[in-house]
Amino acid sequence: MFFYKRLLAGLILLLIAAVSLFIGVADISLASLLSGDQQTWSITLVSRIPRLLAIVLAGAGLSVAGLIMQQVTQNRFASPSTVGTIDCALLGYVVGLVLFSDASQWTLLGVIFAFAVSGTMIFVKFLQRLQFKNAVLVPLIGIMYGNVVSAVTTFFAYRFDLTQSMSAWTTANFASVLQGSYEVLYLAVPVCVLAYLYASQFSAASIGESFARNIGLDFEKIVLIGVALVAVSSASVVMIVGVIPFLGLIVPNIVSLFMGDNMKKILPWTAYWGMVLVLACDILGRLVIFPYEMPVSLIISIFGGGVFIYLVLRDKANA
Amino acid sequence: MIKLTGLSKKYGKTFVVRDASALFPKGEVTSVIGPNGAGKSTLLSMASRLTGSDAGVVLIGEKLLAQWDTRELARHLAVLRQSNSINMRFTIRELVSFGRFPHTQGRLHDNDNNIIDNALEHLGITDFQHRYIDELSGGQRQMAFIAMVVAQDTDYVFLDEPLNNLDIKHSVEIMHTLRDLAHKLNKAVVIVIHDINFASCYSDRIVAMKQGEVIKEGTVAEVVCKEVMESIYEIPFDIQEIGNQRICLYYNS
User: Fold this and answer.
1) In contact, B45 and B51? CB cutoff 8 Å
2) Tell me: the pLDDT tens digits for A126-152?
3) B172: distance to nearest CA of chain A, Å?
4) Chain B contacts of A209, Cβ < 8 Å?
5) Considering only alpha carbons, which residue of chain A is nearest residue B72?
6) pTM for this structure?
């Protein structure tokens, strides 16, 4: 039973992945691939496969980042887009571009990462000082905090003539992903592996600080590790694809509805549904106004916004 | 045995706990009683390394608290506070499994699963071990947290208000369990408790606190008496002995 469930899940993923490979302006068919057509192969290798991998990595990375965030802040509505991580990453991006205009991708990533970690830490510390128990307030304050940060970002962008590039990052689009431009996203792999290794500790922290300390854990250290993993994952996605809103919020929550919050158990499924959701939304975005594309962030916003409202109402009903 | 000597804790200039000394022997249930704001929970937190102290020492077994490695200590001392989040969706069994974490660092062996089974059985919650804690009643949830402490299998067990918001049936069951832990398994059980009659009937020792200071410490007979109770609660007390149990009457004062 258990084995068949996994097998089925794997097959579904492969199927959607295959669909993703064969959709696009250039017509690619299985026959032309098999016949070894040079152009077909080059489109597949340079554009389609990198796009598929980017989607899969970003989907898994951001969903797992959301899961970690929810566990270390003990709040269902925390996620990279509701605690300011993504806005701080964007600020880091602009600052990085201004300060080191001809820096390598990795220097830039370092700056983004540093901003994302410290900006998120500020918010998490702030949360730990607050004593209210109303879970819905956290994303509200987080989104306000994010907006303040992004106001600063916009200011810098105006001063240094970067507003046009800014709009490119704030709407995620996988269309520009090509071989050689997306490899930073592989950071999602070590993030997921580390998250899995620390899964029990994150879960203990999610029950409470004294609970975690009772079983001999260093609560502060776990929170810091969690925030760092979230920041690495979000920073890389923001830099390569742009902002994908709601993903880190809705995927872990939907998985948790069915499977609980035991991270060791739900982490693989969170990553899986993250991949499937982004793949499906990307395919939809490519088909709606074919041969043009709608940015994936738009599709996810529509879907994610609905789920978010459902989750808030459900939380209210329970409270 | 745990020995506290001269423990103090200050917030700003006010002492929450001042120069408190107490003894928590193995094989006995010790209750910490006193009015709100007496510093009971802070004392418990300092003794179990959840809060730092400003003065004084805690001796746990043969080592000072400061000399214990926190991971190592988790195999000898368990502490349960009221501040746990109940919004996260863990099943009872998953929650109880956390008790084995200090021993296994996350990998459960057959032996650990047996200990978890026994803890669930002991608290009578085996039947709903696969339900989520956010779906349980307050009493069942508290049983689950105590089962986790039982599974942690430590020599010292600290519980902050384990009877908070519980009905009489669950309160009695929990106190029975705690007394068994002390008397049958030779653990030192320390609880912060508001219901003085539960404290009187189920404890071996009582520590009475008021305004951050330990007023009186000793056996139930030594502490549950008119003078001590009236001095810490500042209301008239009538204390009756009914079948070897000391019952405090304070309702018509």
Assistant:
1) yes
2) 888 876 667 778 888 898 999 999 999
3) 24
4) 83
5) A216
6) 0.90
The shortest CB-CB distance from A208 to any of B71, B84, B102 is to B84
d(CA A182, CA A236): 9
Q: Strand, coil or helix: what is B244?
A: coil
Residue with tokens 């947290």: B145
What is the C-alpha R_g of chain B? 18
Q: What is the pLDDT of residues B20-67, one digit of tens each?
A: 999 999 999 999 999 998 999 999 999 999 999 999 999 999 899 999
**Residues 258-287 of chain A whose Cβ lies under 8 A from any Cβ of chain B:** 260-262, 264
* Other beta carbons within 10 Å of A144: 11
Give me the phi and psi of B47, to 5 degrees please: -70, -20
* Residue A213, token pair as written in the block: 């300390």
Structure ipTM? 0.89
Three-state DSSP state, B237: coil
Task: State how far the Cα of B83 lies from the Cα of B80, in Å rounded to an integer.
Answer: 9
User: Looking at the complex, does the CB of residue B10 fall below 8 Å from at least one CB of chain A?
Assistant: no
Separation of alpha carbons A272 and A56, rounded Å: 9
- Nearest Cα to B213, choosing from B45, B22, B47? B22
Distance from CA of B248 to the nearest CA of A (A): 33
Inter-chain residue contact A76 with B89, CB threshold 8 Å? no
Cis peptide before A252 (omega within 30 of 0): no
